[in-house]
Write a structure and sequence with these properties.
Blueprint: H1 2-31, H2 33-36, E1 39-43, E2 51-57, E3 60-65, H3 68-81, E4 107-110, E5 115-118, H4 123-126, H5 133-145, E6 150-152, H6 157-167, H7 172-176, H8 185-189, H9 202-221, E7 225-229, E8 234-235, E9 247-248, E10 252-253, E11 256-257, E12 260-262, H10 267-284, E13 290-292, H11 307-321, E14 326-331, H12 338-341, E15 349-353, H13 361-364, H14 366-370, E16 373-377, H15 391-402, E17 410-415, H16 424-432, H17 442-454, H18 459-469, H19 511-522, H20 525-528, H21 532-562, H22 566-587, H23 595-604, H24 609-623, H25 647-667, H26 677-687, H27 700-708
Parallel strand pairs: 1-3, 5-6, 5-17, 6-7, 7-13, 13-14, 14-15, 15-16, 16-17
Antiparallel strand pairs: 2-3, 2-4, 8-12, 9-12, 10-11
Helix pairs in contact: 1-3, 5-9, 6-10, 10-11, 17-18, 18-19, 19-21, 21-22, 21-27, 22-25, 23-24
């Protein structure tokens, strides 16, 4: 009996290690089932942030890893650099590889970053508003494969707030007036808006709570720490009529009434924090190590607040209910404010150098006054389309921070896109920088990327990607919020400086050189036409060529109008409209670029007719006029515009046709009123909350040839 007990004690650690890798085995079976019977996982002791080893032994791929997260990265490393396979937000290349490549010499990769962080609040809406559990399961798999070990997880915060407000005396209508719709939770949690897009049906609040619980369980199984929403004093703007506490009116964020801030130094803050964190524990447990939350985000009012004491109070309540937890703060604009940093225990915070592709606040602010920080890239705003990414800048800045006087404070890297369904090399590279200690030369890296993206070496794609690296993915200096925008999606006017209020029409690269690279890329179509990733990329590259040309033609339209040349105006405006139609035809060749794909996602994520209807309204508002009905504060229209088939020809095209007819009337001596697009856009959303009628598809090769011959 003693021998049996001793044997069980010896076997227990092995059993625990085996269980540790079971979630990774399940991931492999979901994403690359052809590999699952040929891989063995073994534990590897290490004090590093993560390490894995790859080697083929007895015809099996043996992945030795320090934990489940490192093991998942080991799987991905093998898939990318041996099998030339990959997973992305813009298509997968995961077809079986037989025979399996052999790793003759042991390959060891050790993480360079303690934290590999993912997700911006905005990603939860510009990309993930209508994710089902299946969508989140895929997302978490991608995160694990790419080594993410810390991820924002705010899917189910509505339930926490609902329960909290009930405890402080709010009725259901008052709660509904505070919680936003499913496409606007990011700006609610950041303290910018309340109520818009709601009310959120109870069934949806309950479902999002369940999804959050499943997310947290799966994330932890794969070595990803969830970052939840901390209580930093945000309260409904109606609370000041119910309480005598010191509540600072946060006024407005554009057209929206902001939630208020309950002064963290007021005794009422402690009571509210206790309720909030108690409800958090009831729903999501006590084992939460990270909390996000940024007071006074984007213009919040700090009048009458002692910021040093306020920061200390926010952190103290977090530590009281979650001892040892870390407060994650955005390094965005002037946040985190220095006065607030002065009151914090810096060993329990983590600052995100959020917009690293253009800022170096980690250097100017001396590692945020000696705070642990991570270097992050936003890269995309509003999930607006466009090829873009300062790839070499990513590599250079991370390397610079690692070798700077502030290297001891650099704790990792992060991807913070407002929308992630775009530019896959940006996210692959950024997260790989968390696993590469040596400086990366992107000219070499991009060759490997092209091979694993499409599954094989190809002269045309390799040459093209070198061209893309020198154009759309070049690291030119200068401030810019995302890719150069498409004139086709602009609210019509004779003078269009940008499509979204903070975007740009400028192309900071040689468009002729870019088009040459696209033509080189298109030569691979006969060989790679069956590749989903190649097809998606080809459509996207050619779409960009057409958008670039669109600006030139539009300038000709404006010139003809200003010259009062009706014939030239008719000719150029017709050409411009034909390019919009051609864009729609190009995008219609793949479901990834169709409006209905995303409308169906919104519908399918709803569990009741009420949810489905509100989801449709939310998505259509967000991608058109965004929100609110105030003409004087109409700055968010087109912020999240999309180039999707069905949206192009049903929304942007008729809008331009209306405008050109108006201009034509002016040239013909008519005295018609200028179109009221503000009203037209709101009416369009009200009348189009349904799937659109899809058109027949043209052959991709035919459309590509027509565009590239222009």
């Amino acid at each position: 009996m003693r021998k049996l007990t001793y044997l069980l004690v010896l076997l227990l650690p092995l059993q625990l290690f085996a269980q540790q890798f079971d979630p990774v085995k399940a991931l492999v079976k979901r994403r690359a089932p052809w590999l699952s019977d040929h891989v063995i996982f073994k534990p590897l002791k290490s004090n590093s942030p993560g390490v894995f080893e790859l080697q083929t032994i007895n015809n099996k791929l043996v992945i030795s890893a320090s934990g489940s997260n490192a093991a998942a990265v080991g799987v991905n490393w093998y898939l990318k650099y041996y099998c030339h396979r990959s997973m992305s937000h813009m298509g997968d290349n995961l077809t079986p590889v037989l025979p399996l490549p052999v790793v003759n010499k042991k390959t060891t990769i050790e993480a360079a970053a303690v934290y590999r962080y993912a997700l911006n609040y905005c990603t939860y809406n510009y990309t993930m508003s209508f994710y089902t559990w299946a969508d989140w399961e895929r997302e978490i798999d991608w995160m694990a494969l790419n080594g993410v070990n810390t991820m924002l997880a705010v899917e189910g915060m509505e339930a926490v707030w609902q329960n909290t407000l009930r405890k402080v005396g709010y009725n259901e209508k008052e709660i509904n007036d505070f919680i936003v719709g499913p496409a606007y939770t990011a700006w609610w949690l950041m303290g910018n808006i309340e109520g818009w897009g709601g009310p959120m049906p109870q069934s949806q609040i309950d479902n999002r709570k369940l999804i959050q619980q499943k997310m947290m369980k799966r994330m932890r199984e794969l070595g990803i720490e969830p970052v939840l929403q901390g209580f930093y004093g945000m309260v409904p703007s109606s609370l000041k009529s119910k309480s005598k506490a010191h509540i600072i009116d946060q006024l407005t964020w554009g057209a929206f009434k902001r939630p208020d801030i309950l002064d963290p130094t007021d005794p009422e803050f402690s009571r509210m924090a206790e309720i909030y964190y108690t409800e958090m524990q009831a729903l999501y447990g006590k084992n939460i190590r990270f909390f996000a939350g940024d007071p006074f985000h984007e213009g919040g009012k700090t009048d009458g607040v002692d910021l040093k004491k306020a920061g200390a109070a926010i952190q103290a309540s977090m530590q009281k209910y979650y001892p040892g937890s870390t407060w994650v703060l955005q390094g965005w604009q002037d946040n985190p404010k220095q006065a607030m940093l002065d009151g914090l225990d810096k060993s329990k915070i983590l600052v995100q150098e959020l917009f690293g592709e253009f800022t170096n606040n980690w250097k100017k602010r001396k590692a945020y006054d000696g705070s642990p920080f991570i270097w992050c890239s936003v890269n995309n705003f509003g999930e607006r389309p466009g090829l873009y990414g300062k790839l070499q800048r990513f590599a250079d800045e991370v390397d610079s921070a690692r070798n700077s006087d502030y290297s001891k404070y650099l704790k990792g890297v992060g991807i913070m896109p407002e929308g992630i369904n775009n530019n896959p090399p940006d996210y692959d590279l950024m997260l790989e920088l968390g696993w590469r200690k040596a400086h990366v030369d992107t000219k070499n890296w991009i060759n490997d990327y092209a091979e694993y993206r499409y599954g094989k070496q190809n002269e045309h794609t390799s040459n093209a990607w070198q061209g893309f690296l020198q154009t759309v993915y070049h690291s030119r200096p200068g401030y810019q919020e995302g890719a150069g925008e498409s004139i086709f999606c602009a609210r019509p006017a004779l003078k269009v400086k940008s499509i979204s209020s903070w975007g740009t029409l400028t192309r900071d690269y040689d468009t002729v050189q870019f088009e040459k690279a696209v033509k080189e890329f298109a030569k691979a179509l006969p060989v790679l036409g069956s590749s989903a990733t190649y097809k998606i990329d080809l459509i996207n590259m050619v779409r960009q060529v057409l958008a670039n040309k669109g600006t030139l033609i539009f300038n000709n339209v404006v010139t003809a109008y200003n010259n009062k040349d009706l014939q030239a105006f008719n000719e150029k405006s017709t050409k411009f409209l034909s390019m919009i139609k051609l864009t729609d035809e190009l995008l219609n060749t793949d479901k990834y670029f169709r409006l209905n794909t995303y409308l169906k996602q919104a519908i399918n994520s709803g569990n009741t007719p009420e949810e489905k209807a509100n989801n449709l309204k939310n998505i259509l508002m967000q991608i058109t006029y965004w929100g609110e009905n105030n003409r004087a504060e109409d700055n968010l229209h087109e912020y999240a515009y999309k180039e999707w088939a069905g949206l192009i020809d049903n929304y942007y095209l008729p809008r331009w046709e209306i405008y050109f007819n108006y201009l034509r009337g002016n040239l013909q001596g008519q005295n018609n009123p200028e179109p009221d697009f503000f009203t037209w856009e709101h009416k369009w959303v009200d009348e189009n909350q349904k799937l659109i009628t899809e058109k027949p598809q043209r052959a991709l090769q035919e459309v590509v040839n027509e565009i590239l011959a222009m």
